Amino acid sequence: MSSPVDADIVLVGGGGAASLVLAALGRQMRSRVRVAVVDPVHKRGQDRTWAFWGSPGTFLDPLLSASWDEVDVVTPAGRRALRLQPLRYAMLRSAPLYELADRSADAVRITAPAGSVTDDGERVLVADPDGTPLVRANWALDSRPRPPRRAGRTNWLQHFRGWWLESDRPVFDPGRAVLMDFRTPQPARGVSFGYVLPVSDRFALVEYTEFSPARLGDREYDVALRRYCDLLGLNVAAMQVREVEDGVIPMTDGPFESRPSPRVVRLGTAGGATRPSTGFTFSAMARQADRIAREVAAGRPPLPEPPYPARHLWMDAVQLRALDRGLVDGVAFFDRLFDRNPPDRVLRFLDGTTSVTEDLRLMGSSPLLPMMRAAAGDFVDRLRPG
Question: What pTM was estimated for this model as a whole?
Answer without folding.
Answer: 0.93
